[in-house]
Amino acid sequence: MLVAGTAVVVLAADAFVDGLLGVALALGIAPFVLSVALSGFETENLAAGIAANAKGLPGAAAGTFLGGTTFLAFGVAGIGGLIAPVEVQLPARFALWTAIAPAPLLGFALDGRLSRVEGGILVVWSIVALTGLALTGRDLLGGEDEERVRRPGLRLLAGLAFLTGGGWLIGEGLRTTVRQLGISATLLGNTALAATVEAEELARFAVPARRGRPEIGLGSLAGTIVHFAALNAGIIALVKPLTLGHDTTRFYLPVAALSPAILALVLLRRKRLGRLEGGVLTGLYAAYVAVAIIISS
Hints:
The protein is mainly alpha-helical. The chain has a single domain, classed as A middle domain of Talin 1, CATH 1.20.1420. It has 13 helices and 4 strands. The strands form 2 sheets. A two-stranded antiparallel ribbon has the order 1-4. Helix 3 runs antiparallel to helix 4 (58-83), helix 5 (92-100) packs antiparallel against helix 7 (116-135) and helix 9 (185-197) runs antiparallel to helix 13. The longest helix has 28 residues, at 152-179. It is globular. The relative contact order is 0.25.
């Protein structure tokens, strides 16, 4: 499953980028805007969170958006920088929206509970944050020599569908392995489950970067962070309020809120996401997993 899923994800990412560029060119809007708006709709992540919460596993449910946010900011950005270094040409406002995206979630959830009212506010905040994020790159149109592709809408939808399917295959393969290790639900939700559900995001970042359109990968990454830290968290709480344990409020939540800010600081100060920056971020994710294992023991 792991090998098949990886192959599907890599091929689907190319189709997704072709479709995204083609649709953006046809509509006369920046591909960056579409990547922010579309890439973060992770139905598999949301479904996993709702299902876990319904089964009385709020720690695992919260892990899908908390651990997912940390994985994106440290793991995906870090590994992406290692395999596909990019120069950052987006304005400072892009980094700012990325950094503040989890702030309302942190404020609401520190008391150990996420209510339906707070969930509704988070959903509204996600719309505000995604709009602000998309507007930071609305002028980044493709070049005049951008190659037109046939049936870009079909390529875009097919790319999204196969990315989701490939991610599911990878996730199932890894989850089968992790289940045999017998780890706790909260640890599983914040590490293995979050990472496996979002495995395809690495391809969404690396493939555009290698094709000379790094803003698409960065837009996808930041947009997905907003979806996780605001939209998904809000919808899960709307379906059923979340009660968060000590490990979640004292470790997983603060790290999820801090990790996008650290990524934003790297983008602002370094103006690039290269192998050095990628190595540091990957190291931070490895340290996060190590601490998570220790506190769950």
